[in-house]
Write a structure and sequence with these properties.
Layout (H helix, E strand, L loop, with lengths): L12 H10 L6 H9 L13 H30 L1
Amino acid sequence: MADTEYRNVRLTEEAYRRLESHKRAGESFSDTVERIAGERSLLDLSGILTENEAEEMREAIHERDDRSREELDRLVDDLDS
């Protein structure tokens, strides 16, 4: 098994607090940094849909929003009655 190499990193107090707030129980700071650094950005998804696919998705989202609003309105009306 290879020896682990370590590096010292200086953080501002604010950066330290922010990193600490992302730390999970039982997780080292190295584990936290590796987990966060490995997360994908939404920008990584740019270009995976064609313009037609993106438009279909937008329409489906708008339709679902409209149905959700209508259902909430019905529930409110039922509660007010």
